[in-house]
Amino acid sequence: DAPTVTMQRLKALTTGGLPTFFDVSDNFDSSRIEEDNLVDGWARQNRSLVFMGDDTWTALFPTAFRRAYPFPSFNVKDIHTVDNGVLANVYDELDGARGDWDVLVAHFLGVDHVGHRNTANSRVMREKLDQMNEAMANLTARIDDDTLLVVMGDHGQTASGNHGGDTDDEVTAGLFVYSPGRTLVPAGAPVGKAVAQIDLVPTLAALVGSPVPFGNLGRP
Prior knowledge:
Blueprint: H1 6-15, H2 38-44, E1 49-54, H3 56-60, E2 67-71, H4 81-94, E3 103-107, H5 110-118, H6 123-142, E4 149-152, H7 168-171, E5 175-178, H8 200-208
Parallel strand pairs: 1-2, 1-3
Antiparallel strand pairs: 4-5
Helix pairs in contact: 5-6
């Protein structure tokens, strides 16, 4: 749902509510989410949370994470700092160097910035997508049978690389859910079925056994 900008989408993706245009100004000066949400709910359950990536998360959830590796997110000319920061930390976390987390959030940003600077069909975008493909291959190879990997976009982008509105390209994003020890999709089930983004909050809550946020409007 519009507006398809990061702060509003993250708020909707953690509260189960709908984004509002009233919040648009907050995209450039994000403050703590006061509504009931998944992230603070997990923290209240004494689950250990680790974050790395777009520093919008630490503004929205300033006390939720045991460890946080935030990187500045608003310089659209910078297509590598956030992604390289995630990659510099995520493998140590996954390989058991620390091993004390229940939920790990990694927010890559380069694809978004490349879209703004170079368009969605540019050579630079192909290079950035190759980097993300390699990262996904490394992540799927490292997780164990008890880990659920959820890869999703908070919003899409137009062919010119912009977002914020309600065109199909802007409100559509990818979703990939994987766990090596579980069959998550029955054999013969259709691939590519559209899932309402608002339904992710109650689904994740059900999968990990945590309360559904009070204002949730979606369904598992």
